[in-house]
Write a structure and sequence with these properties.
- This protein is α+β, with helices and mostly antiparallel strands.
- It has a domain at about 60-165: Protein of unknown function (DUF541), domain 2 (Alpha-Beta Plaits, 2-Layer Sandwich), CATH 3.30.70.2970.
- It is about 35% helix and about 40% strand.
- The strands form three sheets. Strands 3-4-2-5-7 form a five-stranded antiparallel β-sheet, with helices on one face. Strands 1-10-6 form a three-stranded antiparallel β-sheet. Strands 8-9 form a two-stranded antiparallel ribbon.
Length: about 250
């Protein structure tokens, strides 16, 4: 009798598990079906918005590289000239918070000379001296004064002037405007596609922001001749920046 009861209990549990499994499968199938229905009547498009903006800020690297047989002497000379450079560019309107050190290094210059060891010739390393390089990045808020900054730096002893780049300070504002243009562009594409078969476009079903690159214009470095002590300036044309936003948008249609 007990065996019969155990058998009936196992059968009931098995049926229960089967019912539960069946209900799970049914729920999954219904979910998949709903997903398919949700993806019906969908148009997917890419939208691009581009703004052309006049740069309102510039960056330039200014520095000193000094060689001396004595490391401490090289550092002292470098510091003395850099102090003069910073003093002069401040006179043109650069503030302390717009000057940032980006490179400061000291490296040894070595020469290898032939020398006789135990009857054989080999090369012996000989220290010639030390190079000290100190470079600051200068942020220029007045675009029109870029040439003045270059002249002030070079005339006060800077022998490294390069990496000139132009950008915009309030980048986010322009990017948001470009995003609006991207959405307008996406809607126009979706509307055109819908009209081709009589479909009417509604609000976006989903939108994904699709990448952005910080806009910067780079210009050629300013060539400087320490030997003759004069700056050979290449004309710097600022030009315009292009700020671009991209989106992927899905639209339902009827």
């Amino acid at each position: 009798m007990k065996k019969i009861l155990y058998g009936v209990l196992i059968l009931v549990l098995s049926v229960g598990l089967f019912v539960l499994d069946s209900s799970d499968i049914l729920a999954k199938e219904m979910s998949d079906a709903n997903s398919i229905l949700e993806e019906e009547n969908i148009i997917t498009v890419n939208g691009t918005g581009t703004l052309k903006v006049k740069p309102d800020i510039a960056y330039i690297n200014v520095g000193i590289e000094i060689f001396s047989e004595d490391a401490q002497k090289a550092q002292a000379q470098n510091r003395e000239i850099m102090d003069k450079v910073i003093t002069e560019i401040k006179k043109v309107g650069i503030k302390d918070e717009d000057i940032k050190t980006v490179v400061y290094d000291i490296y040894r210059t070595t020469r290898y000379e032939p020398k006789k060891f135990d009857g054989k010739y080999d090369k012996e390393a000989r220290t010639e001296g030390y190079n000290v390089r100190n470079i600051v990045e200068v942020r220029i808020r007045d675009i029109e004064s870029v040439g003045k900054i270059i002249d002030a730096a070079s005339s006060s002893g800077a022998n490294i002037i390069n990496s000139i780049k132009f950008g915009v300070e309030d980048e986010e504002k322009y990017y948001n405007d470009a995003l609006k243009l991207a959405m307008k562009n996406a809607f126009g594409k979706a509307e055109t596609i819908g009209e081709s078969f009589g479909g009417k476009i509604s609000k976006p079903y989903s939108v994904v922001e699709n990448g952005y690159r910080s806009p910067v214009i780079y210009r050629d470095a300013i060539k400087y001749s320490a030997a003759v002590g004069e700056a050979l300036q290449i004309p710097v044309e600022v030009g315009e920046l292009e700020i671009t936003a991209r989106v992927i948008a899905k639209y339902k249609y009827k």
